[in-house]
Protein 1
Amino acid sequence: MHFRSRLNIKLSLLEENFRKLTALAPEKEVLFMVKADAYGHGMIPIVKFSHEKLGIKEFGVATLEEALKLRKELPHSKFEIYVFSDLQLPITENKEKFKQNRIIPVIATIGDLDYFLGEKDFKHFPLCLKFNTGMNRLGILSKDANFVARKIKDSGRKSIYHLMSHFSSASYPLNNENNQSQLNSFSEVKKVFKDNSIIIEKTSLANSGAIEQGFGLEESHIRPGLILYGPSSLNNENRKLSKWTGKNISSLETYIILTFEVKKGMPIGYGATPCPHDGIMAIIALGYGDGFSTRYQGAHLDHKGHRGIIIGRVNMDMSQILFSLESKEDIRTGENLVIWGNDPREILNFSDETRTIPYEIFCQLTERVPRVYT
Ligand SMILES: *Cc1c(COP(=O)(O)O)cnc(C)c1O
């Protein structure tokens, strides 16, 4: 399988990243976010390695379906799974799946809370609550904390298993006003439960952006996603604030199917884009069918020290990269070409240039791109 586009994933780099994470946030328990197929890296191998080799005991996904897949494929493992957004809890069939598989729903609405507290099947099941401290997406409103405390007491419970909230602006600095007000609001929520003598067993707040800047680390847990896969999650203009030195665990490789000389003005591919200058055209085996988006047109890629540019429309199965004429001896049919490697600056530059984010670039890689683990 040499001549094939693939995502190479080095699990040893995940281990290295995990060591760096624990150095940045010592003593913190890690709830590793592996939603969306572990950000495109393959949820099962990533969780298996993280649990068995790194000792991570808690994982977060977005849907019940993802959680069930984890339980099914790794049946004897005793890690905790949280489902964050797509719960559809008040459906009998789903309720049983949560319960039988010990999958913890992250309760983020009063409706789900009422259902959960009222169900005798959940009587001894861990209660996990997510508050909206300013993200204004999902989450119980901070101002409802007292009301929630009363509901919890009325149900006969004495504790909350895991209390969490989520930053809207962790890719901005700590002094950003949203970060400040969310931190305050979360403290107030915790205080309400304390004042009501409700025990809080675990708390978490920090996602990648907060962890790499060193805030939101007063809680028992952290919830990293992106940084464990490699890149900083900070915006270009704030990236210098990041303390993160992890490596990209993946490299996206393809190969050059064909090279040929082109002249300025020559029509290239679908839409007959005029070639901007004389040069060497390399046709690579990646297109939008692989998740290599049409929006990558115009982005630059380096190969053997030569700067290439994605020219014309990205096709379903191929793309065209134009190099200068001087690179003629170096750009050869049949050779491998790396879109991004283990230096996280490569995917970050690529995502900046294509005005997207590494999260999206990873997630949109399709099944056609084999994930190869070493
Ligand atoms: C996805 C997610 C995270 C992880 O975010 P990163 O930016 O990838 O670290 C943490 N918490 C919640 C609630 C999430 O949805």
Protein 2
Amino acid sequence: MAASKLNFNFLLLSFLASLLIPEISLCDHSRQPKRHVAMFIFGDSIFDAGNDNYINLSVSYRANYWPYGETFFHFPTGRFTNGRLIVDFIATNIVQPFVPPYLQPGINFTNGVNFASGGAGVFPKTDPKVISLGMQLSNFKNVANSMEEQLGDKEANKRLSQAVYATCVGGNDYSYFVHNYPNATQLEQDEFVKNLVGNLTDFVKELYNLGARKFAILNVGPRGCLPAIRQSKELRGDECEEGSLEMIKKHNSAASKAIKELESKLSGFKYSILDFYTILYDMIKHPKAYGFKESRYSCCGHGMYNAAHCGIEPYTLCKNPSEYLFFDGWHPTEHGYRILADLFWNGKPSIAAPYNLRQLFDLESTPSFYQKIMKFPMMNNFP
Ligand SMILES: *[C@@H]1O[C@H](CO)[C@@H](O)[C@H](O)[C@H]1NC(C)=O
Ligand SMILES: *[C@@H]1O[C@H](CO)[C@@H](O)[C@H](O)[C@H]1NC(C)=O
Ligand SMILES: *[C@@H]1O[C@H](CO)[C@@H](O)[C@H](O)[C@H]1NC(C)=O
Ligand SMILES: *[C@@H]1O[C@H](CO)[C@@H](O)[C@H](O)[C@H]1NC(C)=O
């Protein structure tokens, strides 16, 4: 028993090691890595560290009740998992405390700000109740303006150009589309993908124009294979809801291409894309290779795959969340996020491309030509 466990762990370690590249110094000794930089975070519930707590939303949008947060924080923070998120692990690697949510009162901007909002899409109509990507961008402008006021233009611009801009968005837009246009033609689907990628690319360009240089992007995950979707469609065995998967695959390849084109057009633009789709899909299909016992049932919830309404009676909670890939029907456990964060940080180019995050953080940031941040009135989109 003990021997087989040892053997299993050894196999697991060598499997994960095969996806990682060894930590070697990219720089010569005259150039120390400059990792203590700010991180600005955008997107949906994969990255939301509590913004939705401050919006008047129904309980199903929130994760600010037990047992969310049970494993690491021991209280619910608004993160949609039992502990830390991918962005929390990244923040730990760059010697920071966690990056605070924008709507939390009295936050200090020094280490960056998290603008992400559970349920958010690129398009505001995906969910008008939460903070869409465009509103997140205008909130960022508020922060950039405050930084200029507090630190002066030169220092603020330096920090903004050295910072890393992390984004994970798009999944909710595809849920919206598949739900509202179940009979869309191929042409209509392709049009939607094209517009979504165009709007996402505009968002990245606009951040660049405000001084951003380094981007860390998660592509869109395999939504049709999540326990919540499989449960709502009553899918059996290995089945996934294929409609959204096909669109998401097109999206991911078009988005990679568009971002790569930006790199060739915009001086100093650097990025890393984590192939979240491929890894999560592989984790779902081969849980044991990543050290999980269970990838079809969620740890917390009820129903066919225990995938609905985590934390709302009646629900069941698993004993050991680290044996599960999914905490609730939509979101990985902390253990799942830790593996994803490791792969983002250290992964091979087939997983995190063209750089992994460690390389991205260590790249010398080209000083951006100073661009005056457009003055926007200080506004709070949400009370
Ligand atoms: C919150 O939303 C509910 C339902 O939409 C509404 O009845 C309530 O008045 C709102 N509360 C505040 C403080 O806006
Ligand atoms: C924010 O934090 C930094 C470093 O952690 C500190 O130097 C600075 O004084 C803080 N700013 C405010 C307004 O508290
Ligand atoms: C889609 O097509 C099915 C059958 O072809 C039909 O029953 C359904 O009403 C259609 N849905 C919409 C939203 O048009
Ligand atoms: C953004 O999306 C809208 C549709 O919602 C579309 O009309 C517009 O062309 C898109 N922008 C780009 C740059 O693709």
